[in-house]
Specification:
2 domains; mainly alpha; flat; single chain; 112 residues; 76% helix
């Protein structure tokens, strides 16, 4: 009989595989592995941060003053801005690789 930890690991791996397949359908199978890994990593960081915020809010209702000791990462603006910057930079890097630098600049500054 498997222990709870082993069952949790199997369940977590199954979930990660399904999420990987989901993002692979969106991004495309021909995309590089590091792009898929980065997108999935950003997804899990945001997911667990939001879940932590929900849990901390629930605990704060039972123990007032708990929010002064520990806060969720998504409660501050710095986390949200940094995740947005990482996502935008990833998209811009992929566009430069696919289009080339000249077409990339022309698509954003069609002056010439």
């Amino acid at each position: 009989m498997k222990h709870f930890g082993e069952k949790f690991i199997v369940l977590f791996e199954l979930g990660v595989e399904k999420i990987y397949e989901f993002f692979e359908e969106i991004i495309g199978k021909d995309q590089k592995f590091w792009v898929k890994s980065t997108v999935i990593g950003i997804f899990f960081v945001i997911l667990f941060s939001n879940l932590a915020g929900s849990i901390f809010d629930f605990i704060n209702t039972m123990f007032p003053g708990f929010d002064q000791k520990i806060v969720a990462p998504t409660s501050g603006l710095n986390f949200n801005i940094s995740m947005a910057l990482v996502s935008v930079c990833l998209i811009l890097i992929l566009q430069i690789q696919k289009l080339g630098f000249g077409k990339f600049i022309y698509s954003y500054l069609p002056v010439w």
